[in-house]
Each structure stands twice: as structure tokens, then as C-alpha cells.
Amino acid sequence: MKKVKFLAMTAIIGSVLVTATGCGSATNGSSKAEQGATQQLQGEVKIDGSTTVRPIMEAVTEEYRSEQPKVKAGIGGAGTGSGIKKLIAGEIDIANASRAMKEEEKKAAAEKKVDVAEYKVAFDGITIITNKENDWVKDLKVEDLKKLWLEDGTTKKWSDINPEWPDREVKFYSPTNSHGTYDYFDEVILEKKELVTKNVSKSDDPNAIVTGVAGDKDAIGFLGYSYYFENKGKLNALTINGVEPNEKTIESGEYKPLSRPLYIYVNKQSLKDRPEVHNYVKFALENAGVLAQDVGYIQLPKADYDKQVQDVEGLK
């Protein structure tokens, strides 16, 4: 976390320097933007949604406190779907999302007259994990994933995929249906068909999936790359169609079809009317790249962040 500490120190030093500049505004003619940079804000930014995006936004909040200590910005982890519902209902300002908004969600927002801004914060790759003692499977094809995870009325065994593999039942670990990680996997692997119903444990907490797979030799699960990255000492990450999930393959899209962008969705009215929300979102997009790298995700090209920051500034 050296980068995080560096950012914090940079923010503090920068704040001191800008404050000194602002103090001389009566004589040096500093702009309103420069004077506004020293403004200490108050209030609360309400954030909920994806547990996959949460580590990035927690890192953002940690850094933001050094700049705006009087602004509260706690991060919930109700899941992408639940977060978007709360955003549409006006209960939160920002919904973290590990998938794009669905058409029905956009329609619901329009019906409630909630104008939503979409911003990308990082890239992620859904990672297929197995137990460290699993020495028989290193790579799976997309078709293998479908055969394992799709409900077909049978009890799934490893030997169903390869007769040389153990004739034992597979134990499945998955996020719940409210999570964007589940939605994305459901769309690109299961093609929106039913997930296995036998020997499956679903959890809202990715760490519970880590624990479950790490404790069961016959387990398989899927979660966001950063949770594997944090626990790679006790998990295997499978290659998919021969491609390993890593920074290079996820950013390039070579790790397909499980590479994906991560989002925050923001109530535009909050951006326009509440300085603390506007300032927080701008700070998040200015720093999300470095912070995403620090917590195990892959940053976007700098030009993408810059363009989004300009969009936020236009909503002030």
C-alpha cells in the first residue's frame, strides 16, 4: 500500500500549498476554482452496492478523509442489484456496480425521474478458483464451465468433465443472485439459464467463498480478481481457454469472456446540488486508477479517467 500512503501525503501537502495560495487571493487574483479547492466540506455521501467494487471505493474514502475529513462516506456491500435499486429509490448517492445497468433498471430510473451518470473505475476478471490440493484441473474451457455450472438435474462430478479426474461430487461456491458478479457469470457463461442447485453454497460475502473453497478439496467457485489476488496463497486460479487471469490479460480483454469493466452510478441531481457528492466523485475518478491497482484491480487508460472527470466538472 505504498502508493496509498504516498497519495495521502501528497493530498496533505497539496492542500497546504493550495491553502497558502488561497490566502493571498486578494492580491494575486487567484481564480474561483483555486479558492474553491481549499473549501472544507461537510455532509455524507451514501454509497452501496457491489462487493467487488467496494475495495476500490474504500481505498478512495480512506484517501479522501485526508482532504475532506468532515465528509462521511461509508461503503455498503449489498450487491450490485440492491445498490442500483437503492440509487433509484433515492436512498443513496452512489451505487457501486460490477456490471452495467440493465435495461429494466434504466427504465425504472426513468420512471422515478432519477437521472443517472455512469462512470467506469477499473477492469476486473471473474476468477475461477479451486482448492490448493486440487492437482487435477489447471484449465477449463468455457464449455466445461457450462457443463459444471448449468443445472441439468444431475449430480456433477469431476469425472463428468474428464474421466481421468476424481469420481467425486463437485462442491460449488457462488455469489448470490443480487451480486453483479453472479449476473455477469450468469450472462456470459450460463446464458441466463439456471445455476446448479445441488452442492452449491451462495454467499453475499466473497470472503466466505474464499473460506469455503480453501477448506474443501472438491470445491470450485468464482469471484472478483482482487479477492483471489488477496488470497492466492490458499487458492488456485484456473486458466480459461488457456488464458491466465492477470493484469495484462484482463486489461486487454484476452481473458475472455470473463474480463469486465467496473462502474459507479451516481445520481446526477446529487452531483449538481451537493458539493460533497460532486467533490467526492471527482476525487474518486482522479485517483481510482492508482487505488484500483493497489487493491488488486486493473486501471483504465488515464485518458478515460480524464474524460470522466471533465464530465463531472460539467455537472457542477
TrEMBL record:
Residues 1-20 form the signal peptide. It comes from the Bacteria. Residues 38-285 form the PBP domain. Keywords: Cell membrane, Lipoprotein, Membrane, Palmitate, Phosphate transport, Signal, Transport. The keyword rRNA-binding does not apply. It is found in: Cell membrane. It is a lipid-anchor. GO terms for molecular function: phosphate ion binding. GO terms for biological process: phosphate ion transport. The complex is composed of two ATP-binding proteins (PstB), two transmembrane proteins (PstC and PstA) and a solute-binding protein (PstS). Belongs to the PstS family. This is Phosphate-binding protein. It comes from Priestia taiwanensis. The gene is pstS.
